[in-house]
Amino acid sequence: MIVSTVRKVARIVLVGLLLGLAGSVEAPAQSSDDPSPHSEGALEVSVSAVAPGEAFTAALRIDMEEGWHSYWKNPGDAGKPTAVSWDLPEGWTAGDLQWPRPHRIQAAGVSSYGYSDVVRHPVRITPPDTLTPGTTVTLQGEANWLICADICLPARQDLERRVRVTDEAPAPSDEADAIRAAQERIPGPVDGWTVQAARSSGSYTLALTSETDRRPDLSGAYFYPAEKATLDHAAPQPVTQQGDTYLIALQESGYAQEPAERLQGIVVAPEGEHWDGAGEKRAMTVDVPVDSTLEGIPTLAAQSSAAGGGGLSLPWALAFAFAGGLLLNLMPCVFPVLSVKILGFAEEAGEDDPSIRRHGLLFGAGVLVSMWVLAGILLGLRAAGGQVGWGFQLQSPTFVGLMTLLFFGIGLNLLGVVEVGTRLMNWGGRLQSETPNSGNTGAFLTGVLATVVATPCTAPFMGAALGVALTLSTTGALLIFTALGVGMATPYVGLSLAPRLLDALPDPGAWMETLKQFFAFPMFATAIWLIWVFGQQTSNGGVALLLGALLLMSMAAWVVHRWAAPRLSRSLQVLTRAGATVLLVGAVAATIIGAGDSRPSSASASERDTPASTGETAWQSFDPAAVDSLRAQGRPVFVDFTAAWCLTCQVNKQNVLSSTTVTDAFAAHDVALLRADWTNRDSTITKALESHGRSGVPVYALYPGDGSGPRLLPEVLTDDIVLEALDDLPESS
After folding, report:
1. Which residue in 328, 263, 202, 262 sits closest to 692, CA to CA?
2. What is the CB-side half-sphere exposure of residue 293 using CA atoms within 13 A?
């Protein structure tokens, strides 16, 4: 992901440099008496004379020195299209410049479209029918283009051509053949071909279907978009074939403001291939609407969605969500908070039944309300066009840092270092206080906190259900989130509704203080994990600031504990509490500042995961274009959608994906390994997850090498699960 970002930034910088040089009239390679450096322009006409009212073809010819180039109407990542400003006699009209098929110009990760050596841009010119035969007319204009090699320079040429007027049929000029050859390079429609376009999850598919028996070899065919900000010009365009149809995979531009409603441009066949049987058309124009599907053709995105559970029915999704909620209680990111609730049940063992039931139901209400709030945020961002998924808030380093402070503070409270009551630490410390109102609030907020920390985990069955939720209507999505919350709250609500089960617990006593202090250590363990996540998202400097924030929080707790309120005068209470407040504010400020330090001092998380070996089993950073390219080569591809804050992902990676047995099996089957690191927000990975019908991690997609859609493995992996999936791969062609 970082590599991709750096590449985009580099391309932006290079484009800016090129355009900046292009706009400089004092470029060192351009002298004041040479308006068209490294190139020359001229106006040609296809006839030796013109007749009144009879249109004819002219052409702007640009001759370029070796190694220099001009640009197509869509210059690609960098450049500027050629233009002509005409100054014709009264009554004369000139059409638009015509554009022969271009070629790709690639340098430093920047892909542009243009021309080298000599290019002719034909243009249709129509004289008025009032011309007087035997007279001479002068055609004038100014041509402007950009001429580039290692640098880019603006070029200008004053055009002038005198033409004789005749009342006879004009004969061809000496330039007619060259202009005719240029016209043959102008793309146009081709009979016998049907073109469709579809879009799914940030990528487009162009489908070209032959209605005849002609089957050209289109490996290497390339689509040149007419609009600059539609496609990623540097992305590969792998071509696959399904029967009579050729599919070209296109990647949407990261600068696109909105999806394209039409795909417009040209498709150029590979060298030596043509669209027509006569061998005359190598470039075919495309202007088709973009649909969600291709008629009669299953796109790769549609196959992926079907394979990924996108077709899961609502009843099954609800069942999966409920089961996932139950299993969520066993996830390591949830249990530390729920341990507080277990402690509360132990304290309530001697209370009356209605109080226990009330606290259990309030805990369940806290889970449900927070699930609904989270669902509302997700659906609201989705409606606004945002790319979000389950656990999206943990993609924010600021949120992770503040959660670290919270869990560290809860641990200090459980150890008895500081007693702050429900006013400051009622999100996790003493959630079950002596007063009824405070206990009710504590029970509710325990459910809220449990839900907040549950979002990094995707329990088994939960992934497919959440994927469906984010594609359904608001009502359907809320039903799934409700089922997830009910499943998560059921064990504790059930325990509170059957309070006799609490009779099995020992009577309250000194053991409860020991148990309370013991539960502080899961809180500290969670804080350590969050610090590790924070380090993956920021830098060593950011982690140092977060650790400094924990030091300030410890000092604040010490001040409050050392100068306990009952032993102090009022003025000293104000002074010590003000000092503790300043320390806490400093802790929060240091955390926020550290979260903004996103300049990694070492390799990215995905790069650190890559083995030192450069063999075939090395992990690569995820890139949809790389997936398409590898699949086009016939190689199986395994994509690990992961995140540093996903504990299930890390367990799977360490115990299964990094095991010798599995890595040897990957190498034996020649599987390309890609890791999609979703630790920080990445719209490309979010779109890829959506294409599989999922909205959170972990997701494991195994693409066979035969062009079919991926197989999604379970969220919790074992060696046998991966090995069985690899054994089911088709034999390599």
Report:
1. 202
2. 7
Convert the pLDDT of each residue in 621-660 to its tens digit: 898 888 888 888 889 999 999 887 676 787 788 889 988 8
Q: How sure is the predictor about 1, in pLDDT bands with cuts at 50, 70 and 90?
A: very low
> Contact, 557 vs 417, CB < 8 A?
yes
Amino acid residing at 223: F
For residue 248, what are the domain limits? 193-298
Beta partners for residue 159, in sequence order: 141
pTM of the model: 0.44
Burial code (b: 16+ CB inside 10 Å, e: under 16) for 611-627 equals eeeeeebebbbbbbbbb
Scored b (16 or more CB within 10 A) or e, 452-477 reads: bbbbbbbbbbbbbbbbbbbbeeeeeb
Place of tokens 């009979």: 191
Q: What is the CATH number of the domain that holds 279?
A: 2.60.40
In this structure, what token pair is assigned to residue 379? 């659906």
Of 311-325, 365-379, 523-537, the least confident: 311-325
Whether residue 139 sits in one domain with residue 275? no
Same domain for 424 and 346: yes
Q: In what order do the strands lie in the sheet with 93-94?
A: 39-45, 56-64, 118-126, 93-94
- Is residue 545 situated within a structural domain? no
Distance CA(453)–CA(6), nearest Å, equals 32
Give the Cα separation of 82 and 95 in Å (integer): 15
CA 139 vs. chain centroid, Å, equals 52
DSSP labels for 128-176? Answer: -TTPPTT-EEEEEEEEEEEEESSSEEEEEEEEEEEEEB-SSPPPB-TTH
Report the interhelical angle of 540-562 vs 397-415 (nearest 10°).
30
Residue 640 lies in a domain: yes
Q: How far is CA 487 from CA 106, 456, 500, in A?
A: 54, 17, 22
β-strand partners of 118: 63
- Could you give the number of structural domains in the chain? 4
pLDDT in tens, 664-711: 999 999 999 999 988 777 788 888 887 777 767 788 999 988 777 888
Instruction: Give whole-number Cα distances, 182 to 44, 47, 68, 115, 345, in Å.
Output: 12, 15, 19, 12, 85
Q: In 3D, which of 588, 555, 559 has the Cα closest to residue 576? A: 559
| Rounded Cα gap, residues 573 and 564, in angstroms | 8
Residues 512 and 660 in one domain: no
> For residue 609, what pLDDT band results from cuts at 50, 70 and 90?
very low
Question: Contact, 457 vs 647, CB < 8 A?
Answer: yes
- Judge if 613 and 697 occupy the same domain: yes
Indicate the helix (H) or strand (E) that contains 112. strand 110-116
Write the DSSP string, 568-607.
S-HHHHHHHHHHHHHHHHHHHHHHHHHHT----SS--HHH
Structure-token match 């071509």, residue found: 239
Measured distance CA(668)–CA(617) in Å, rounded: 9
Partners of residue 76 on adjacent β-strands: 112
Whole-Å CA distances, 66 to 62, 63, 103, 144: 13, 10, 15, 19
The domain spanning residue 653 has which CATH number?
Answer: 3.40.30.10
CA 627 to chain centre: 14
Query: Kind of pairing, strands 619-621 and 672-677?
Result: parallel
Tell me which of 187 and 651 has the higher pLDDT. 187
- Per the prediction, the chain carries an average pLDDT of 76
Q: What is the DSSP letter of 297?
A: B
Compute and round to an integer the Cα radius of gyration of the chain: 34
617, pLDDT greater than 70? no
Q: Are residues 106 and 213 in the same domain?
A: no
